Protein 1
Amino acid sequence: MIEPSRCQSLIDQGQAARRDGRADDARRLFGEAIATARTDSDLTGQGHALTATAAIARDTGNLDWAIHDQQEAIALFRKAGDGRSLAGALREAGEMFLAQRHLAHASVALREALDLYAADPDAPGLAVADATRAAALLAEAAGDPGQARIFWRDARTGYAALDDADEVAEALREADARLAALG
């Protein structure tokens, strides 16, 4: 078995603290992970630690801080050439921009995420479905019901193809409700 890197171990511990509601501990652990990754010149590890700090900021409603950390992570994933991590970070950024009603920024981020996933034949189905869901929400927010229907159908198809029915049940209900509302 391969041992996780020190950075990954710190991220995992931080994620556990976040799940347990210990935001301060999570921030500290993610900060240590960032420092460790910088010391090790691990661009991808540093990017993942930054997306984790962005998630904490998002949890607490500080979207400006979350977007700052997320954009820094995006730059690191680009520099590292890690397309899959970049796609995930772009999707999360797109959702943050959408929450702030910065539709143009959300559109750019989500379009690139979807393009990266389309270019990756081994892209995780859940990640693709989540990005498609975000694009559907963006189309709704932009007042484009036709495009929203297309994205919701695609997201629903993606979720339905996944093996873990319990994990995606809520996503399927949401897609069905949104499609019904769009007519």
Note: Residues 63-80 form the longest helix (18 residues).
Protein 2
Amino acid sequence: MSKIPLYVIADCSGSMAEPGKSGMLSYLLSYVAECMRLGQMPSWCAGVHALSWAATVQPLPLGLLLTTGLAAPRPAGRADLDVLMDVLERELVGAGGAVRLLLMSDGGIDHACQKRWQTWRARFALDIRAVALGADASRLALEALAGKGALYGAEEIGAALHDWASPQAAPRSLAETVAALVVDCAADDWQ
């Protein structure tokens, strides 16, 4: 199995300023950092590159989240998708074009930007998962960015990260996994 870099993109735009969203983003970033610390990243992962994204894109030191308890950067400004595409394009060229993106966002991205993203991403071998943050997250916008079947709720961060271990398997939500288990258990003879 070839190794593929993982880019964790943390939306730090102004719409993420609600305490619930920023707290959840910090928790999700800590989850990824803890998986790294414990050596629990999927076997395909060549390394994790975390980026905060708003009007600019900045490296996000996940290791500091664990050692210092730092939260995600303070949310401010607009999420500029064009800036994110420019940064990612430079990274993609350096990585040979095959990367995986884990986008953590509330999806506050207008339709025109979504269309530009879809045109841009068609040029690369991108495998994207989006994690929706907040009760008001635009699930349609996030699915437009990540692709059909690649949208997860914040409570499904483990599945979003670790389901990639089996690239042939379609992503399953937590509800689908539980439903499959219930069907399997119903077939068992408990008497």
Note: The first helix runs from residue 19 to 37.
Protein 3
Amino acid sequence: MPTKANITPFQFYTLLFLSRTFSLVAYIANMRAQLSSSETLVGSLLMGIFLLLTSLPTLWLMKKDANSSILTRASCLSAVYEKIICLIYLVDFFFYGIMTATRFELFASSVMFPETDMSFVMLTLLAASAYAGYKGIEALGRSAVIFLLPVLLVFVFVFCSLLGDFDFLNFTPFTTKNLAETVDSGLYTCAQTHELIAVGILLPFVKEQKRKSLPVWILLVTGIIFLTNLMLSGILGSFSTTQLFGMYSLSVLAEFGFVERMDSIITCVWMICALVKLAYIFFLCDYLLTSLFGKEKKVLYLLLSVAVIFTGMLALSRSIFHFSQVVTSPLSIILYLVSAVGVPLSVVLAEKIKGRKQDEKA
């Protein structure tokens, strides 16, 4: 697979931003411990801190060489090591793809078309996303830039139209009673940011200044998550914890000018973000499978990826309870920590050890 740097850092991080936005908008309440509004906001800030800390191995990796994929650098250490890393990343992104597809299926079957079998619709969405991934990272980067403005405008319209309903009395004083649950919430939200893992893999596709852009991206992601939780708590109060999809609940209440209901618009935006997110996941799966088996069979690998994600979605989307059992399990956090922290850290340390041994021989 060619790895020519063909997208700008802005296109790349916009793609990752829209991908993370879907996880934010598709967040399902009541999956973690019940937290007060103030604890939720503190958890959002802790998420940003955890995200910055877990990005340090990737930043360290980019400091030495910001143009080579982590897979290429692992192959210079050991061919077997490269295959192991590919397998770890594949498991992670297959899991992430299944979670993404299941989130959207649960939303569609519970809000858009209740009591309707969404299997065919989801299969169509996955096929369309796989085709978008087939077109390559350059097409995805350009599409993300085009979709960025409508997505941001929807957030602005929803928040501005509901500012009059914002009430600081909805916020409860922060206490240390649920400190452990608050920290856990921040870590869990951080573990939903698998986009950080993609940075080390896709470095060869991105032009210069990619390292400096990563902290800015983390700041923007933290900011929009904090702002969304602030609006949810300030407008809905404790009622926000009883809603399956809090952002959708806000959009139902929102009115902006001649647009009396924003929920239909945000549903379209949600579908755009889902398509972008799944497309880049399929692109990654194809890239990883090519690296794992050493042969470029794009169509076969994409079909395999669609089959795995669709099958996993069918198994988990039977009920929100089944989905919550998986998504709130330690597996989610373990996969994230291994892929985002363990793998890049091990590569950098292994390179240092190899360099010292070569210096000693010299």
Note: The domain at 9-361 is CATH 1.10.4160.10 (Hydantoin permease).
Protein 4
Amino acid sequence: MTDPPDNTRLRRGTNFDDHIDTAWRSYRIALGDALAGLADDDTTLPIARVGDSTPLLTATLTGAHRIRIRAGDSALPDDHDTQTAAVELLCSEGWRTLRDGTVIIEAGRRHADHLAERVVAALRNVWDVVDPAFLGSPDVGVGAPHHPPEPTIEVATVPTGTEDLLRRTRSAIEQMTGLLVEVDPVDHTIGLPTIPVASSIQASAAGVAIEFCAVLTAPVPDSGSAARYLTTNARRWPGVSFAVESGRVHALLRVDCAVFHRANVQAALDHWSAFLRDSAAEIDRMCSHTTLPETDGLRDSSAPPGLDAVLDLIRDNVRSDGFTVAAICGFDRDTVLRYIRHCAQQANRCLIDERTRKEAGDPTTECTAEANVWRHAIRSLGAALESVDAMEKMRRRTPDRPKRRRQ
């Protein structure tokens, strides 16, 4: 005697609802794994009924590396009242609507399982999918060999003015983040809910460009020390410029938009968000609570005559160019080299003092800060040396004009 069919076994040995719950549990686990495995190479995970080419939901990875699930354009009912009820039900489950009416839900990659739970609830309660057997496999397209898409023509636009530029930027930010953002009618800025400090986007006053801006500190106790710290560490934050205005540290990232394209705004937003997330708190801490030594404290009887003028320039103008420093040195190569040697000796002394204090268990902050000032002086003098050499080359290339005889 042969075994009865599977459906007979199901009716005899198990409860039908338990079987459905088990199937949905397996589907949820598989979907969570698939969502967590989404790559940032434009991979799309469709969730559709078997045999239906139009997906109910589509999952992608945003530029901010968040998993976003979007309801298909034709997934919701056509009837207005029914569609409104469906959207309200989705919103009660953690979904939200964008300005254009698109319904989405998103979260970080580590919350992929939670997203899978929300998706399963929506499939069962909104789209009335009884059994996941009516859906395609949730891992379709994930883990399969990636074939580069056919080349496409990207369309860029030329903004017609400041209002048009801000409007296009606002629209791009909303698409990237899924958040509703507005252009402030007073100062014409776009607010960004960045972490750990809020920031904004404004149209540049110089050229067709947008600028990401943020105030990183409250009024600092010593603006000069803050400026020297920022100058010393500027290489760590490429593309970001700083200014100390009214005692506060301002950061700015400029993006040229003579030809506007969403990809440029996306790259800038990612760079800006990473900078604020990784460095804003450190800059606030160092500029608000740590002061570098004043240049007056760096002078001693062994310093070469005239070096104090260079130290004053570096303190008062952190962006002093090599030509200005060279002018203070009288464009004399030997003077510049003598100053560099003295600064290098002082920097080495600070390092030795720092090592000695560290071995004794004493604080080393002052030694480190003073060494940074001497290193900055060496860099400025190195730029001055290049200016002196450039001037000397110009003199060699320019022949002496013959003196005119008096008649």
Note: The chain has a mean pLDDT of 78.
